[in-house]
Structure to design on (1784 residues):
């Protein structure tokens, strides 16, 4: 009986994650994500109407055409969490496989939304919810288990695929955070148990492997304390107050709203994607917004709300999209004077996010900052912690799982190579039991 | 008798240079440039139709409103060379002063063009040509001298203003290049003579002060040798061949065309600004293009030429604009498949330019490179030398001129401060005889 | 009546702080520090036996010879806190002035120690303790007030010198930390009162002005949370455990020992300077060490302790000097196998410090890390927060104090210039009311 | 018949190169170098007296113990050029193999010297000279060919091993330089012929793969032009003049001495290793020193020469060791005032070398520069071009050789991985026909 790990996407970039694991004749697909950066290259890309083959050619979604030559039956499409680089290609690719899509309830609800907004393809795969801590048999030989972990979106799981040859662990993405408000800590006990039971192979998120100055990723508790300290002044001043963060970062939005709850300001959460992620999380009982919070998702409502806030700026705190300076997001549009809210001298703008350092983002952020400053805003930058494990977290994970074989994922060759060096410190050896794959390559374990 | 140096623009940025020197009641203005970076902040800026006050407010041109309070008569507007950060605001500001514009013939011809394309203002100042090595009396007390120097555009001069109190030297921009094809070396002998005669104050270009790894700026001879080595293969291959460089860099274009002269390829110089700078330089006998070169400036002609080159790509070498990735320039449009020329696998693209490292350019260049590579092009990057003096050149200049007072210009506070450190190594002291000015500030010497 | 601020040291470097403030005929000196980096240039420098003039020539201590020409009477030498770059030159320079040394009790006790270990000079100046919150008249016209602030050593104060012309504030060094264990938060209320009363001039620590990614410096609370998270695993493992931090960072040592108090490990604090700072702080009731902590300062005791720890490594946690990789400090000596404690595979080494990024430190840390790793140690890096205010803290401070005049200190020209840009955002203008001084220069305010 | 490439050393670092190629039962070893950086970790390493096993354990020389398990007969030890990272372990390892050492005459002479200064081992392997362009049969099945190439030491060759399965090319180190004075250009024609004949595998030097700003490495012609421009002033001034460069860089020393030949200064080449490399090159007719040059190798002679130069500094130009700031080399000792030559204000020091950017060198260079500047020297930095091929040179080489299989060498995993990306642009694929090896790993080709 052989196990084969097929690197479909996310092995040459941070984005468009997709990995297939083949155990004899059964195949499980983990994640189907998109790579948003690639969209910049082609100006005319309206994803929702495009064919998957065009998107594949442009590098926007994983090239799963190689799956045709994989001789086996796909038993499940498993998504570990609701970020677009993990679920964003579902609507383009899933219909080709006769298999259910399995994810945690919140992730599943987000997948449903992407399927509904798709214009080109009809996705009819059954959607099956599985909770962290639960198992489900997906073929006579295979059982899928969802182990609780943490990341920057709720209900992220690490998948454990139980096979006759041992467990295959797919942990992409994850961080080890013991102090989140919305999500309980990772289930370290279970990881250790799996390690004892015997992990055949582990596929790990290496996004942050190069963060040597922050060898263990800081907890959201740190973010909360930073926000608390930074918000103190601005909440009391008689100035405008805008906070921007990731729309999907429910934990962070929970923290920000909680901290601002007792101030006199009303909180407006504004933006289409803000509304989508938050209202869903609220409906599902994940996000618990204080009473002084309102959500605005469609442009008319947003405009009205912004006009109100503009006239009475010391009475509101706005939580908006646009921290990367994306030209069509709300904060850049505000800074560019294209909304009803005008930045005035002394207004405070808090970036509860880091800039993902590709040249496009850096240029957009630079423009955004210059425009905000020109209008007199005060900027608080990088009030944030990462959602990806640092190198010492990865080392801890390796020690817990003691996998026979290691496959770094979610990075380009420089990330995967840096992981190899870490793994070798732990006794592995490149090509023997830690493997660098390129998109489209497979690794077979006997 | 007092001398006053008024920092109007270019003391808080690399761009929009303008300095006024007042000697008793006579004022001489040096340069009136624009700051192209500032255009990015406001999306709707059509310069040619805008009023100077709006452009001043947006930081695009120097704020010369302070000149109203300068109690003196402007005797001349002197431009040292034809780059837009030195002449680009002439059409917006010069009409406010009853004074001739004095420059070398090539610079003057370029100034004339900017005046003609202006839509808002009418500039009627007399245009007076002065050659390097010549002097002209501009008031009973003042004589202006143009001393030969080198830069990245022909007929750049260092201005020496002879006053009863000593010489005021304005050297912005300059490099010390002894091996250009088009321009003779700087007149070091004259600089030393001025030094002996007595230089009261020197205003110096500090753009490259931080280039510690290249303490003396490399000569164009180096660029020629690099181009020769790099072009060798591509000229012979049966592939497309595109070179991009600064349209105003006549010296470089001379070198490239000379090197490619004996190949079998026909050379097309393409682009509106390419045509403007080159045809003017050709008409004035500065640029001596080989017979196999053609110039195309209007879009119809460019399109036809590109179509020809596309069908027979091994027969042509294209020299085009767009090295900074500017979206509307020719190379980015080619890479984006918006012209008749399609990049094919194996085509060679040579950047005879460096990327000016602001975030917008870096993003544009990144996009351009990715698009070129996606189509299979091979890129040769940075086949280039700078046009600005390095720190050790500045030191040499200080030793030649031995100025009483030093005023660094053409940089933000970090450039000017770095120059202060160099000057202090040469015996000067901040505040005593080397001065950091902000835009709008003046320094008086008694 | 004029006020003159004389920049004696610390205006061209981070180090050797010394500023004199002259109010009519009265002079107050703030800080007399050394510049440890300069020692690297000369290999044979045994400070304790060297004459001040030699040390001045070598750039190790401030050049106070210019004070001879200051026409006034020195009324006090005021030290803001106990770091060597603020008190380290007292033993070399103070005896030249007939004036008391005024500082908080802990600072004063540290000053006494440096005076005692001096071999060349005899310092007999009276030592006068002043507590935070207290005032003392030091001449008919001048009253000195110590305002509570925070930094990375206890009992740091911001000095407010009340003069007939307004208050002169000297805040060098400081951070705004509201959550320290050992020290209460800064006295913001008093800062605002001073602002209302009228601050003539403020001299501010600019060390961290360039930290744009951390615009408000993180609190020690953050450091505590990081340490707690990082120490959890290592405390429980059966491996060696070493923590290194600044010997003078009593707050941090308090936090580390408190966190480890309930573990089964005994805590050894080891090293001569560790012992000096800690035992003093303990004696003065500032540091409250748990019962399972022992202090070892002389080499024999250290050796014995290390031998014990070596034999039973899972029973101890060592807190040692050497985080910058200084060859003679304890951790580098351990890593180099020059002590009784041998690093074994799996031992944990926690750096609760950042590397001060000069080339010597970077080389020393690199060597240290390679040696530790070669022996199998696991390294946790940068479990730390800074002790200096970030740019947005400085902005807050300016808004509280509303000083007429600003003088950035404790940095080279690049720090001071960056501060100018911040100050100009707040309405100041270089040369008018914010000033860049060089060592040896003075600024007069009328 | 199988070919096996065994990565012994230089696949996890820039240094200690050693690769074995096994063709059936015949083995050829390429290079036996040392890794000088590793010496810093252990302070007490006197190489000449140490056993190879100790040096292996310390990572200073390649771990060739794995060769015991290689089932074959070593037919030759081939060294490509005379740098220590290619020949420095010969004296420690070669005696274990019953095989001749084959190299070009200059390389061989340098190998002889290292053998003679060895204290621990006796190396009796026959030394066989082979000239560039020549072939030699080394076993019934194998013929070794030396193909002319260029680098930063004379007589560097690319080895071509002709096997029944095709050619194995070992090009480590190399650059493509068409304008050296001492060495003719690489034999591109022969490379293309080998490509046509069929290259089974190519092992390539990747040192400079990350130099994206200098995609083709600049020629020594560029270095000559830079030196000419920089030396002009200093040669004429009445000041001291010191040039420092690599002792083994005969080409550079030829260029410098040639440029300075017609000045009035006498040229002294000083330093033990300077003398070793230069006198050998001179004796063999490779280096052609002008008449005004003298060589000084032993310390007494050096001291006397320095004393002469000190008394009459405007009459001499010194060429010395120490460009990396190595504490025991001549220039750092001069800067530290430990010789008879004292740096005086205005003396010129020209670094015809770049700093190899590891933390130790950066610290040493920083110290050296500060000491030189403190004494008033003027420094010209980085008057240099590299000796290693840039990425576009590598691409050219791949296109000439068209190897079936590619193995990047001479770099850590980040270099090798970056090469993989280049190779993939040329149609290769990781694991299929381009391979990343770790020290101790082998790749078999059938």
């Amino acid at each position: 009986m052989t196990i084969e790990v097929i690197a479909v996407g996310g092995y040459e970039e941070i984005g468009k994650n997709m990995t297939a694991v083949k155990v004899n004749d059964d195949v499980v697909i983990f994640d189907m994500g998109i790579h948003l950066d690639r969209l910049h290259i082609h100006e005319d890309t309206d994803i929702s109407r495009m064919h998957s083959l065009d998107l594949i050619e442009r590098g926007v979604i994983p090239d799963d055409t190689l799956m045709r030559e994989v001789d086996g039956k796909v038993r499940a499409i498993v998504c570990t969490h609701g970020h677009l680089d993990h679920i964003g290609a579902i609507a383009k690719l899933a219909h080709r496989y006769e298999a259910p899509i399995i994810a945690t309830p919140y992730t599943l609800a987000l997948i449903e939304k992407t399927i509904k907004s798709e214009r080109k393809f009809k996705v009819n795969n059954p959607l099956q919810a599985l909770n962290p801590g639960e198992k489900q048999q997906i073929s006579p030989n295979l059982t899928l288990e969802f182990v609780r972990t943490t990341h920057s979106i709720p209900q992220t799981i690490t998948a454990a695929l139980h096979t006759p040859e041992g467990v295959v662990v797919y942990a992409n993405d994850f961080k080890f955070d013991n102090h989140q408000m919305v999500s309980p800590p990772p289930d370290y006990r279970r990881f250790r148990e799996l390690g004892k039971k015997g992990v055949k192979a582990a596929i790990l998120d290496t996004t942050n492997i190069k963060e040597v100055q922050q060898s263990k990723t800081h907890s959201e508790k740190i973010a909360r304390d930073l926000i608390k300290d930074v918000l103190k002044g601005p909440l009391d001043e008689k100035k405008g107050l805008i906070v921007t963060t990731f729309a999907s970062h429910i934990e962070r939005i929970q923290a920000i709203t909680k901290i601002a709850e007792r101030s006199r300001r009303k909180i407006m959460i504004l933006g289409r994607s803000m509304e989508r992620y938050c209202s869903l999380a609220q409906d599902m009982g994940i996000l618990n917004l204080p009473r002084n919070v309102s959500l605005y998702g469609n442009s008319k409502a947003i405009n009205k709300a912004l006009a109100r806030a503009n006239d009475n700026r010391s009475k509101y705190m706005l939580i908006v999209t646009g921290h990367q300076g994306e030209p069509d997001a709300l904060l850049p549009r505000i800074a560019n004077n294209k909304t009803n809210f005008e930045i005035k001298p002394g207004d405070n703008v808090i970036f509860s996010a880091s800039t993902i350092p590709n040249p496009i983002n850096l240029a957009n952020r630079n423009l955004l900052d210059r425009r905000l400053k020109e209008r007199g805003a005060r900027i608080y930058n990088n009030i944030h912690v990462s959602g990806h494990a640092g190198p010492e977290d990865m080392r801890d994970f390796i020690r817990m799982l003691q996998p026979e074989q290691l496959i770094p994922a979610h990075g380009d060759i420089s990330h995967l190579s840096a992981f190899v060096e870490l793994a070798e410190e732990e006794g592995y050896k490149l090509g023997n039991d830690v493997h660098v794959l390129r998109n489209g390559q497979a690794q077979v374990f006997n």
